[in-house]
Amino acid sequence: MAIERTLILFKPDAVQRRLIGRLLSRVEDKGFKIVGLKMLQVTPDLARQHYAEHIRKPFYPHLEAFITAGPVVALVVEGPEAIGVMRGMMGSTNGREATPGTIRGDFGTSRQMNLIHGSDGAEAASREIEIYFRAGELCEHSLCLSDWLLAGDEK
Question: Which domains does the chain have, with CATH numbers?
Answer without folding.
Answer: 3-134 (3.30.70.141)
